Amino acid sequence: MNPFVSRFSGNSWVMPVSAMSLVLGFMISMAWVTKETRGSRLGLLGASQNGRVSSGTVDMQEAIEKTQAEVAKLRADNTKLQNAMASQTSSTKALNDSLQEAKIIAGLTDLQGPGVVVELKDSKKPASGIFPADLIIHDIDVLKVVNELWNAGAEAVSVNNHRVVGGTSFRCVGSVILVDDVKIASPIVIRAIGNADTLKGAMELPEGVLSDLKDIDPAMASVDKVKSQRLPAFTGSTTKRVGIVPKDSK
Amino acid sequence: MILIPIVALFLGAALALLMKTPVPGVYGQYMAVACLAGFDSVCGGIRSGLEGKFRNDVFTSGFIFNILIAFFLAWLGDKIFVDLFLAVALVLGARIFTNLSLIRRFLLTKWQDSHERKRMQQIVQANQSETTQ
Q1: Which of A58, A139, A241, B52 has the fewest CB atoms within 10 Å distance of its CB?
Q2: ipTM for the predicted complex
């Protein structure tokens, strides 16, 4: 006699329920949100659930930082290899010198030198009689300071240890500022390498970029000269997908 | 015995995983609601099985139709801009809770009964051995 028949004859519900459970498991697996279907299904959620589901992705920040550390390491290795190659002949040496110079301009190597540190902070003043939005640092404040530093002859600029390069963007999103898609918030530390006196003078011009902030609360902006500081290399993407170098300028 | 449906559940999930068939977009949402209906039916099946009231035709047709109705209601809700999605989720969620609590009560009672029976048997045996001595 079939042992299963005798086993289940008393409880005939087990087999049908198990069969339907199999179908149900199949369906749940089909409905499960995966990497591929996430994008197309996220937009269909209500605002509150969307926020709940998306809150986990904020932790991507850590992953981004890790990847950036790796990029920095690989670029440093690249520089070492280039230098090693250059030690062979004088022609490769000349080539490498101009390459390293280009990398400094592009912000792809660390740079050390004197300069200034500009610190921007949200004001702690009570918002009585002042427009509350004036008490916080906005993307435009960072943008103006960086622009003024370049104008005063800065050779390299970093914002919260993120190197500013040709394509760097500053944007406000909610309560944070995005520098090349990396989130930063007050206090914002802007470092610049260049002639320290010139840079400090540019920052403290009457009616200059910081005067509006200092009028509201002197504690919102401070400028300090530094004898020597090291700015990190740019760790964002340098891949260009659309543009190509025209043949006649090669 | 109650483990067999659970094992089957994971087996089905693994099967779909192997076939790599995630449903994208809005149909994935309808499928999710349909899953709730299926889960409710399976819970109901286990409950009626434990209560001894299980009928195969009622269960199987209920499973299939509940899934189709849930899918259809969620779809209809999006067509007429009424959030029937929530209605389905609410009703089925409540039913799943009820079914699971009934299953829990039933198993608890069964366990307590067998416990009590054992205790009684021990008392009876003790009495018997006393009288024979």
Answers
A1: A241
A2: 0.76
Q: How far apart are the CA of B45 and the nearest CA of chain A, in angstroms?
A: 6
- In chain B, the N- to C-terminal Cα span, in Å, equals 43
Tell me the residue ranges of DSSP E strands in chain A: 111-120, 156-159, 162-164, 170-173, 176-179, 182-184, 188-193, 221-231
Q: Give me the residue spans of the domains in chain B.
A: 29-132
Q: What CATH class has A113-231? A: alpha beta
Q: Where are the domains of chain A?
A: 14-56, 59-109, 113-231
Number of helical H runs and strand E runs in chain A: 9, 8
Would you say the pTM of this structure is higher than 0.90? no
- Distance of alpha carbon A192 from its chain centroid, rounded? 18
Please state, in angstroms and rounded to a whole number, the distance separating the CA atoms of residues B22 and A249.
50
Distance CA B31, CA B68 (A): 10
Contact check, Cβ <8 Å, A29/B13: yes
Q: Which residues of chain B lie closer than 8 angstroms to A21, CB-CB?
A: 5-6, 8-9, 12, 42
Query: Structure tokens of B45?
Result: 């099946």
DSSP B24: P
- What residues contact residue A250 under an 8 Å CB cut-off, 6+ apart? none
Other beta carbons within 10 Å of A151: 11
Within the 9-38 window of chain B, which residues sit less than 8 Å (CB to CB) from chain A?
Answer: 9-17, 21-26, 28-29, 31-32, 34-35, 38
Determine the distance in angstroms separating the CA of B103 from the nearest CA of chain A, rounded to an integer: 14
**Tens digit of pLDDT per residue, chain A (250 long)?**
454 444 444 567 888 888 888 999 888 888 888 777 777 777 777 666 666 566 555 556 677 777 888 888 888 888 888 888 777 777 777 888 888 888 888 888 889 999 999 998 888 877 777 777 778 888 888 899 999 999 988 999 999 888 998 888 888 877 778 888 777 877 889 999 999 999 998 888 888 888 888 888 888 888 999 899 999 888 877 777 788 888 887 6
Residue A154 identity: A
List of chain A residues whose C-beta atoms are within 8 Å of the C-beta of residue B3? none
